[in-house]
Amino acid sequence: MKKTLLILTAVLLCGTALAQHSDKETKDDIQRHRGMAAAHEGAAKCLEAGKGEKVCMEELQAACKGLALGKYCGMRHAH
Length: 79
Hints:
With 79 residues, the protein is mostly helical. The chain has a domain at 30-79. Helices cover 70% and strands 0% of the residues. The protein has helices spanning 2-18, 23-48, 53-64.
């Protein structure tokens, strides 16, 4: 049973690894990454301006809506 599960897992992982994005999907990913980077840069500038974590977090969430999963815009800090 374990051997069968290992083989099935390996097959699924290999299939996933071999799947490639189309040019459009790759371009969309690039745009999302740039959007997330801009949202995080805005959050950094907000914190530098002394606006406070709550305000800056709300701005980050608004700027990131539709770009990434979670309330941290695809990035989670250790604190």
